[in-house]
Write a structure and sequence with these properties.
- The structure is a single chain.
- Strand 1 and strand 2 (65-67) form a beta hairpin.
- This protein is an alpha+beta fold.
- The chain contains five helices and eight strands.
- Helix 3 crosses helix 4 (111-131).
- It starts with 36 loop residues before the first helix and ends in a 16-residue tail after the last strand.
- Helix content is 25%, strand content 25%.
Amino acid sequence: VHGDFTRLENHTGRPHLLDMASTEDAAPLAVTGPAGASQALNEIFVCSLCLELLCDPITTVCGHTFCRHCLARSTSQGAKKCPNCRAVCVIDARTHASSSTLVAALEALFPAEYQQRVADARSEHEAFEASHLAVFMMGQIAFPGTVLRLHLFEERYKLMIRRAVESTRRFLYVPRISRAPLRTGDLGLEVQINECELLPDGRAMLEGLCVRRVTIRDPWVEEGTGNLHYAFFEPLDDTPDAEPQPPAEPA
């Protein structure tokens, strides 16, 4: 690759992968044009959210492109809008098709860097998915070891179970007697789905095992899901305290 790529810095202070030094061994493609061409290429191949080389890129209806994980996280925890222009974003970044043309260009221009980005993004995505789950709320008290048998018919929970079955097969259960909002510090249980029958109309019959107690942290409602809650969580230590030992008899 021939050209004068500008050296950009991202939020971590590390140089961008579009630095010319990282592309000397790429396929011998010629990049020619005015001095502004390098900036144009940066705009094409750099995600504006993470400021890194695009990874599994997705292009929105409004024409902006982001890493799949970046867009999924942005639209899940924030408004269903393009992070760049704030146009309504109706695509589901979890399942939307990647831009095959951009993927081919990234693999041709930056083969080593792109493969590393894919590996890093996969690890980051797995860590993010493991740290938060959708929340199901009902007025039944449960404990670790309780088997939940549920008939899910609300739209938000039909969406929850579809996503869970397609990914981790887990969700959070928070016993809820009142209509008080979900808050940081509330206690819940992590549920592992054992059996699930998805009915033609979207309803679900499932059996799940309450695996462990957890503490809810930073809950939010995903926009456009009919009030489906998500939350980060931390496992609660249920190890019983050691029984106090009687004082030693004096010698």
